[in-house]
Amino acid sequence: MRELSYDVVTIGGGPAGMAAALAARENGAERVLIIERDRELGGILQQCIHNGFGLRRFEEELTGPGYAHRYIDMVKATDIDVWLDTTVLAAEPGGVITSVSPHAGMTVVRAKSVVYSMGCRERTRGAIRTPGSRPAGVFTAGAAQRMVNMEGYLPGKDVVIVGSGDIGLIMARRMTFEGAKVKAVFEIMPYSNGLTRNIVQCLEDFGIPLYLGHSVTAIHGKDRVTGVTVSKVNDRLEVIDGTAFDVSCDCVLLSVGLIPENELGRAAGLALDPVTSGAQVDQFRQTSIPGFFAAGNVLHVHDLVDWVSEEAAIAGRSAARHASGELPAAGPERSVTAGEGLRTVVPQRLSAFEPGKMSTRFYFRAAKPMGASLLQFWADGVLAFERKLRVVKPSEMIVADIPVRKIGDAQTLEFRVVPAPEKIEAEDAIEEEA
Amino acid sequence: MAGSFGAGPVPDSADVVVIGGGVVGCAIARALSRFDLSVLMIERSPDVATGTSKANSGILHAGFDAEPGTWKARLNVQGARLYAELSEGLGIPRKATGSLVVAKDAAQMETVADLRHRGIDNGVPGLEIWSREQVLAHEPNISPDVAGALWAPTGAIVCPFLATVGFAENAIRNGVRIVTECAVTGLDVADRQVVAVQTTRGRVATRFVVNAAGLHSGEIARLAGDDSFTIKPRRGEYILFDRSVGQLVNTVLFPTPDKVSKGILVSPTVHGNVFIGPDATEIDDPEDRETTAGGLAGIIAGARRIMPTLPLGTAITEFAGLRAAAGKDFVIGPSPAARGLVHAAGIQSPGLTSAPAIGEVMVEVLQDVGLRLRSKASFVPVNPAKPRFHEMDRTTQAELIAADPLFGRVICRCETITEAEIVAAILAPCGARTVDGVKRRVRAGAGRCQGGFCGPRVTAILARELGIPVTAVRKDSADSWLFLSRADLEAGEGVHA
Questions:
Q1: Domain B1-94+155-231+326-385 belongs to what topology?
Q2: Which of A100, A131, A137 sits opposite B293 (nearest CB)?
């Protein structure tokens, strides 16, 4: 059994792990390691062969592998160690990481700082309790995407997609390109959970119908899938009697949500946010376990990889500063909550600010779609800051920079989204850049 | 005869043919493998344990339910004892959790007192009536309106798949041939004596046929002109929860039974999950394993009567199993229509528990109808232990990787299952041939992501180890192909249409 020491270790070599490792190295960490279980870096980006990545980060439109390779090249240009085909079995408080691989056997690494960057997994049929039989041909959209884009096999030829998450929408287009017939996308909510551009470019451009407010109530078939039964639902998401109809298909792809993959954290006693299913962090992305940071989809599910890279850079820098003892002491913690109109906020708490810090950035998910709205920041119950939002969609993250002077010494911070009192002019809606 | 497993040809003849590779058939085959006989098992699916044995409660009942004097009463108690003796050697995961029948009022307390007396008559050891306080001390999450319970210390939980595979593997090691993807099409009877079994893979001459065909055992009997019993499939739905809530319950919790069934249970599984179910719906189609919205809602409501706060958000899968019910008791014994045909049919609950005892009793039944038995000195009663990586300490894990690097590659991250374990499960004497076969043997894909991550990887390993294309890898049943190639699609082909 090998034993080694590092300043910063990222668990996972996807976009978050790579960006965190690079930021750690740039901020003074001498020995940095990325542990990746797959045979190459890049994580889920490697199977996302469509374009649309990097508009914000690189100001150009890249494919998933294209975006990944920008970071892989940056990592290769440094002395960051990369272990591929290596699985972390445990990461214990204090920074003791046990990993295994076929080529190096079991290794114990002692890390001064650890960045959780394991990404997320797909919600399954079982989690949403779709009744029916259990034939072959039912796949999560991401598993099907891997088979099609990386292994070169197709999961079926007559496809029904359950849920309108982005991977499902992307797979609707991919399966159409591959020659399959995508019959419909069924979404139980009255609105889509995917990005607007994906609705347009992946469904509308190909004439694939999107049924909102429809639930797949049964999957049929003994050997292979033969079809599904679909019903309309009311505003309480209950099936409306008499609306059922059958759609024949030989393949069902599920795109019904993503769940941060926090099994390692859970085993170590990590405090989780019950809504994001990710860690509770402060503005440094430090978790409840000292020296353990989190970034990317393991922290909260992102809509754009660009935000992942940005968030991971924060976590990586903080990890480096923690390793060198420069990260400020947390001080008394202040809670940040998602109030009216919002479902999630990250970070969920604030530690003492670094000297000279002008603003701090918050990421939100809305609870429901809204038109013109105001994002409000309430400090100790007093409205301290307001920003106009042209439109609010649960599928798109809201990002806001709050000036430190507006936060002041407030102990409880709350954000809300409320309808705008009057119509907001389009010119006002241009998103503020940091 | 050297044992074997797979979709090969059938031999021209066998001393005994066992029809059906469920837990009952496999336990019978293993019991027969102690003797100097050529034993052939035929199974319609690509794997054992694909009918009732793959979807049930996984409980080893203590034996207080059945009416004294029935096959159920006798074989349940005997079976529970046999598992305690055999499980370790055969590689069958078993946990002696005990079980509780929970009473909520005075009338139910009377019922559990009656159950205790019946259990004593059946020879069940150690039964006790527990007070409310004793129950709450043992099961802190149970409904606070519990009045008391019947405690059965010999109640236990078991892995039903590995029970079946454990019996099958041991049978194969002792010379039994198992031919899969082989369906029975006829029984040849001459002068009221069975003389051969007709199958989709050819004719097998034999004078002894064991009908362990589960849901299809009535049809098999009919092939010999025997209509002495009819199978009425009874479907039961289940919800399985993540291991993260495994601490919810420590023992098997039954409600106080009514006349129809044992009611909705809340129980741990031997792998650390929790399940609720089953309900009981009589159906016509012996292949109808659909769960229903109403059924799932019903078992949730039923389970809440025992365990008010169910972790529904941690559900990882729902499934339905079919009980092969033929009346009140098991159908065990010679066919009244054809000599040499013997039935182990109508094996509903407590069939899993009774299986090894059914194996023993079927040896006697065959002997009674003329099968001559000679013990085999070469019989090996146990299977070699298979390392379970995630259950081992770090030092042992490191040694395993040093000996076989594939132990260092984790394929199923939810359950921490390594490539070495998956390869071993495929190459074993009763080896996995399908993705679900791998899952049932080593739990790759049985966790919270339900194969979302490891499914494509397990498919690739199966293709490599079996020497078949990815497009020939199946999920479970003979026609459950998973993927097609781009060429198939361009040719306008369906999935292996």
A1: FAD/NAD(P)-binding domain (3.50.50)
A2: A131
Let me know: does B266 contact B253? Beta carbons within 8 Å. yes
Angle, vertex CA B14, rays to CA B9 and CA B15, nearest 5: 165
Whose tokens are 């990815």? That residue is: B470
Strands B16-19 and B39-42: parallel
Distance CA A277, CA A270 (A): 11
Residue B220 structure tokens: 């098999």
Phi and psi at residue B27, to the nearest 5°: -65, -35
Tell me the domain boundaries of chain B: 1-94+155-231+326-385, 390-490
Q: Which residues of B are catalytic?
A: 61
Q: pLDDT tens-digit profile of B380-427?
A: 999 999 999 999 999 999 999 999 999 999 999 999 999 999 999 999
What's the CATH code, domain A337-429?
Answer: 2.60.40
Alpha-carbon gap: A263 to the closest alpha carbon of chain B (Å): 8
Cβ of B400: how many Cβ atoms within 10 Å?
A: 22
The ipTM value here is: 0.94
Interface of B with A in 178-237 (CB under 8 A): none
A2-121+259-327 and A124-256: identical CATH topology: yes
Quick one: which of B435, B440, B328 has its CA closest to B23?
A: B440
> Distance from A108 to chain B by nearest Cα, in Å?
10
Distance between CA B38 and CA A358 in Å, rounded?
84
pTM score of the predicted model: 0.95
Rounded to whole angstroms, how far apart are CA atoms A417 and A390?
A: 12
3-state helix, strand, coil in chain A (%, to 5): 25, 35, 40
In CATH, A2-121+259-327 is 1.10.10.10: no
CATH architecture of A124-256: 3-Layer(bba) Sandwich (3.50)
Contact B316, B415 (CB under 8 A): no
Report the candidate in A419, A414, A415 with the shortest Cα–Cα distance to residue A370. Answer: A419
Contact status, residue A262 vs residue A296, Cβ threshold 8 Å:
no
